């Protein structure tokens, strides 16, 4: 399943580098409607520009405000957007501290699973946009860093259906622990993903709705991967 090479065929795509990673990839993720799937080796705090209008606050000319991408993800979660992160290394301390500030995410709306063999960098938004490249989900890789502070990254962005299906199928297999049985690191892995998958799924978060008491947030499935 994991070892494959696709046949040659024309694919419509864009190559992104530098600031384009933030504009094209993070910009799409924070505007998601149904789902955001992320795969990354390193997982760190990532800041985004804050363009929200604030009553009574005067915006200073040339002054840009920033906030954590996790704050934007919390808003997505409250709208029922499915959020997944498949990562290798332990999240950075600033990431963990910021995550704790958003109960909806810390409570399970941001599903996180760790596999020490994950080295691919993937972002899939709404099952319709795919990023494949070198950039980890970090400030230096995808965040809004200034010129001279950003890593040299290179990747592609595409809406190609067959490629989306293939990448999502591989992601789903790893997420469900499909490769755990034969993994030579299983004895060293603190929590093999096939064991995580066997555990009961947590209940979806409950958020209040105006005038309607409380209701469950609807979790929408991502695009169904090809068999």
Q: Averaged pLDDT, please?
A: 87
Question: Distance between termini?
Answer: 11 Å
Low-confidence stretches: 210-221
CATH superfamily of the domain at 14-47 and 65-179: Endonuclease Chain A
Q: What is the class of the domain at 14-47 and 65-179 in the CATH system?
A: Alpha Beta
Strand-pairing-aware structural class: alpha+beta
The CATH topology of the domain at 14-47 and 65-179 comes to: Endonuclease, Chain A
What does the overall shape look like?
Answer: globular
Main sheet properties: 7 strands, mixed
Number of strands: 11
Q: Mind telling me the C-alpha Rg?
A: 18 Å
CATH architectural type of the domain at 14-47 and 65-179 = 2-Layer Sandwich
Helical content stands at 25-40%
- One letter per element, helices H and strands E, the order comes to EHEEEHEHHEEEHEHHEE
Task: Describe what you observe in this structure.
The structure is a single chain. The protein is α+β, with helices and mostly antiparallel strands and 227 residues long. The chain has a domain at 14-47 and 65-179: Endonuclease Chain A (Endonuclease, Chain A, 2-Layer Sandwich), CATH 3.30.870. The chain contains seven helices and eleven strands. The strands form three sheets. It has a seven-stranded mixed sheet with strand order 1-9-8-7-2-5-6, sandwiched between helices. The radius of gyration is 18 Å and the shape is globular. Mean pLDDT is 87; it is low at 210-221.
Distinctive features:
227 residues, alpha+beta, Endonuclease, Chain A, seven-stranded mixed β-sheet, two-stranded antiparallel sheet, globular
